[in-house]
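3.2 Worked example (two chains)
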Amino acid sequence: MTRKLRPMELRIYKILGKKVIFHFVGSDIRDPDFIRWKANHINDYLLDPPGREKSKAWQKKLIADAEKYADQIFVSTPDLLELCPSAQYFPLVLDDEKFLSELKLASNKDSFFKSDKVKILHAPSNSEIKGSKHIDETIEKLKGKIDFEYINAKQLNLDSGTTYPVSRYQLFQLYQEADIVIDQMIIGWYGAQSIEAVLSQCKVICYIDEELKSHLDKNCPIVSSDVNQLEEVISSLVNSKQTIDEKTSNEWFIQHHKLENIGSILIESLS
């Protein structure tokens, strides 16, 4: 859903016998102020998640309209099921053939990373809600303890021509160079960047909320870490000689994020 539909429009669709499907993503129904609060109080949240309102009044009205008129409601991440319990989790999908072909084309004579050390990348779309401050602070603590090179893409000060710190082409090059990608430490579930980094054969670190881990496949290659565990998790991955199990990673992607394989969920809702 890309815009708010008035109840009258929804009633007309129903009268005409049309299927009505809502697909909620992130701040469609999750209050961005809650995520900002969480970013500034993440340690308090981890100790004792507070009973704060996670949706604004207009978002609750949107959910109520969806539950009244929709034939099916999907959410992009399982945390949104708390806000709309009648919904179904429909995972992010990615065209892996297109992504991998574009990944191969991304190259630059000058590398972003400048050493042969283990290369760690953090490329936040939004530094605040991705927990970049906590990631950068942890990296500072690790300097001198383990051998690595770190890039926070926002600090490259490149002109991507968008609100993102780097262009897609530049991000693909960074994926190719990196050994470890750190996604986010606040939201509590992985996003498109984690999936892309897995397909790029990078080790991936991301905060997965304890309440949501039941939605993870046992073979999920993403390493879960909160801000308090991050120093230990980074050290372990930097020192580990174990490489990515490409077969397991690809099987996980195909099963959970390849459109051709999970599209049946959408097709069934239309039948």
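3.2.1 Second chain
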Amino acid sequence: MNFPITILVADDNSQIRHITTTLLEREGYRTLQAENGAECLQLAKEYLPSLILLDVVLPDFSGFDVLHQIKSDPATDYLMVVLISSIKTDTDIQIFGLDGGADAYITRPISNTEFLARIRACLRQVSVLNRFQTAEQRFRLAVEESPSSVVITDATGIIEYINPRFTAVTGFSPIDAF
């Protein structure tokens, strides 16, 4: 079953929020709306959207502060966040946002065509990350449930992981290894 991709739009300007969500919904995305930073944080934690479009200038927190809180919380740190601004557009501000954890920075004005292309590009990255995480979970399950002993070492031979079967056969536990 395919669920629609959810995008959280956080912007204090109701007109921009409406235009943005209408554009995204026409493309088949599900949208959530926040008019301030606190609401954005609450919706991000509750719904774990695929993408957050975050205005840099909000009435209660700066978008940079909201970004920092999202990226500092283990429950939301993996969420893709795109900063958006028509005011804070100079290169140094964009670099500050990207270095602060934003996955992209969009400046306005921007055409609808380019905006949607950038959203699709971000969502492709989300898709790749999701596939990687699924593959990692499958690999981890296969190794942990394997009837064979498995030991993973780094390039210098230091043990990084041993599976339960290895412990059962040798009596050597992960605590002993690390």
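3.3 Remarks
Residues 151 and 162 are 5 Å apart (CA to CA).
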